């Protein structure tokens, strides 16, 4: 199969599975009806996407903080001789979802999520000690401007912004039943005609209970979305650059909003600063070509930002979906 993104039904299919996945016993049949094709065609196409690694998985994406998990970005400064050891140590932790080697003295950049009741700095300090790193930065989020895990297959003015990420005061008294549903629904949905029947059997509840629970979690902002995760690299976005901007405090909100409107920026956060590390806005940028990244200096000039860092990904060391309530081995 050749993936021809000019075909209108493929564009619409990718949009549906990312943004509007149906909570239905036969979800792929419902999608097929919208597209006026067959359920078999939908499933065959998705299976081919999965085989070619365009499609990572279809699943629930939960908000860790609602389920009392703590998270932060860390950067380790690691010498060349200790780099292999550090990568092994960091990657071995199940709470590390992304780990990248970048072109800076702080060369190991990773996100860490810890379980309810755990001290994230204590866990990070243990990783630091075992990795034989020389220094590290602790960079928790102060404010979220944009989180966009949705891949737009054509130009769009729509932004998937987690508007409530900084205003979550919900004290969700989750139960063992909730934990069980989270554990199963965060796993890849089987690409079969009746996938929720399989989840239903594993959870010991009926499908309607699952659908009602997902809708409730969405209302409570515990569920960010239920849908597909596509791999940007396989859609041509080979350049992955984290840009750090030093912005005056009084301009942070305004510039954060401006940056969030850029299509090539998928994530935009304000993060903790230090006297020796003044970068406060962090953006994840994705480009298809080397030429496209020249837009960053032009953007900095237009926004009158003199101090910024373009940290290119030299190597993707780990990239996995976060699994809440994981087990530490």
Number of strand elements: 11
- Terminal Cα separation, in Å? 40 Å
Q: Could you spell the SSE succession in H and E letters?
A: HHHEEHEEHEEHHHEEHEEHE
Choose one word for the global shape. globular
Query: The biggest beta sheet, please?
Result: 9 strands, antiparallel
Derived from helix and strand composition plus strand pairing, the structural class reads alpha+beta
- The assembly state of the depicted protein chains is single chain
What is the number of helices?
10
Q: In what range is the share of β-strand residues? A: 25-35%
What ranges have pLDDT less than 50 throughout 5 or more consecutive residues?
A: 1-6, 155-167
Mean pLDDT: 91
Q: If you compute it from the alpha carbons, what radius of gyration comes out, rounded to the nearest whole angstrom?
A: 21 Å
Q: Name the helicity range.
A: 25-40%
Strand order across the biggest sheet?
A: 5-2-4-3-11-8-10-9-6
Description:
The protein has helices spanning 8-19, 27-35, 39-51, 83-92, 120-131, 176-185, 195-203, 207-219, 252-260, 295-302; strands spanning 55-62, 70-77, 96-102, 108-114, 135-139, 141-147, 223-230, 239-245, 265-271, 281-287, 308-319. The chain has a domain at 1-52. Strand 3 (96-102) and strand 4 (108-114) form a beta hairpin. The chain has 329 residues and is α+β, with helices and mostly antiparallel strands. It has 10 helices and 11 strands. A 9-stranded antiparallel sheet has the order 5-2-4-3-11-8-10-9-6, covered by helices on one side. A two-stranded antiparallel ribbon has the order 1-7. The chain starts with 7 loop residues before the first helix and ends in a 10-residue tail after the last strand.
